[in-house]
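step=encode ok
step=design start
structure_in=
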């Protein structure tokens, strides 16, 4: 990514540049800063994004993302492939993006299983007033933590 020097007061206003006019405005401001007071700011670069479906849910992922999904039958460190790819987004304008009907044919997302475990316990408490009906039950949802590898 291209670096841009902006004074410390301006860093709160320009955290990322989705807009070319904001980028140019910040570039003009950096010419007015004193030497030694610059902060390095980066322009946001669009990366390849895919929308996958697993466990009855949809996830928008990029390469290197770490996501928590419903539990899979896979060992730690094992590579897995998600074949149910709903969309692949290549650039900001969407000119070379692929949208599936319902899935993109031939597309796959590979990931590595980091670990499997259970989330924190939640308490399910049922009660009917004035009837003496009380039920307390705990639940821990299992999950699998995966790191997204290659989007193809």
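sequence_out=
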């Amino acid at each position: 990514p291209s670096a841009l020097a902006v004074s410390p007061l301006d860093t709160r206003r320009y955290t990322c540049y989705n807009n070319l006019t904001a980028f140019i405005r910040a570039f003009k401001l950096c010419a007015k800063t004193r030497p030694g007071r610059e902060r390095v700011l980066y322009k946001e670069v669009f990366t390849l994004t895919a929308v996958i479906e697993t466990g009855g849910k949809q996830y928008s992922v990029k390469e290197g993302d770490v996501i928590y999904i419903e539990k899979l039958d896979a060992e730690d460190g094992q590579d897995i492939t998600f074949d149910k790819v709903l969309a692949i987004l290549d650039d900001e304008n969407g000119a070379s993006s692929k949208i599936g009907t319902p899935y993109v044919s031939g597309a796959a997302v590979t990931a590595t299983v980091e670990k499997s475990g259970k989330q924190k316990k939640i308490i399910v408490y049922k009660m009917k007033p004035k009837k003496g009906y009380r039920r307390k039950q705990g639940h821990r949802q299992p999950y699998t933590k995966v790191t997204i590898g290659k989007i193809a």
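step=design ok
step=annotate ok -> The mean pLDDT is 81.
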